């Protein structure tokens, strides 16, 4: 359910002083990083910036539907996310699209557990509204939970990246990048290129291996495939 030639990239703290900056400086990825990577690394097919609340940053926001409420993780996403990681949407609904991003629409895709906990048993949530941190959002889809999908859960809520930015005043900051390369490229080499570019942009020492974190799914799949072939 996720592209084999893909990886996660995120930022941490520097471990080596460089260009007048001290050790321990926080690195913040931005939307302009995404644009630069697209222009300079042709092996990258898709790149999806992402922000979140309740997973790595802050507690899960309160979500309310009439007299029912609970806390759920919130993700700010672009449509290209589903080109890298599959999101199965129940009939009658959809995922975030470009129009949602352009017009900063207050729409959301809820999880199947969210639907069960906030809506009546036979109630169709599509077109209905929930409040996320006291702001009304219209439900446009319900995603089916896929076990083994990393840190995602069956209660997660997805909203447009631009709407997330306005809701939580994050500006152009990006929590992490999900990147997929073309099928015939070496994703480990792409990972190295991405890190080199990000280090140059954010003035990080070339030998600093802590400032930019990553998890390369492509290399993991390759090892698993080679192991299976060996068996």
* Radius of gyration, in angstroms, nearest whole number: 19 Å
Largest sheet: 6 strands, mixed
Give the end-to-end Cα distance, rounded to a whole number of Å: 24 Å
Strand order of the largest sheet: 10-6-3-12-1-13
Class inferred from helices and paired strands: alpha+beta
SSE string, helices as H and strands as E? EEHEEEEHHEHEEEHEEHEH
- Tally of individual helices: 7
How much β-strand is present in the residues? 25-35%
- Name the poorly predicted regions: none
Shape: globular
Task: Indicate the mean pLDDT.
Answer: 92
Helical content (DSSP H or I, runs of 4+): 25-40%
Count of DSSP E strands? 13
Key structural traits:
231 residues, 5-stranded mixed sheet, globular, 7 helices
What does it look like?
The chain has 231 residues and is α+β, with helices and mostly antiparallel strands. The protein has 7 helices and 13 strands. The chain starts with 5 loop residues before the first strand and ends with a helix. The model has no long low-confidence stretch (mean pLDDT 92).
Provide a short characterization of the protein structure:
This protein is an alpha+beta fold. It contains seven helices and 13 strands.
Provide the fold topology.
Blueprint: E1 6-11, E2 29-30, H1 31-40, E3 44-53, E4 62-65, E5 68-71, E6 74-77, H2 81-84, H3 98-102, E7 107-111, H4 112-118, E8 129-132, E9 135-143, E10 157-160, H5 161-168, E11 173-174, E12 176-181, H6 187-201, E13 212-216, H7 217-230
Parallel strand pairs: 6-10, 7-9
Antiparallel strand pairs: 1-12, 1-13, 2-11, 3-6, 3-12, 4-5, 4-8, 8-9
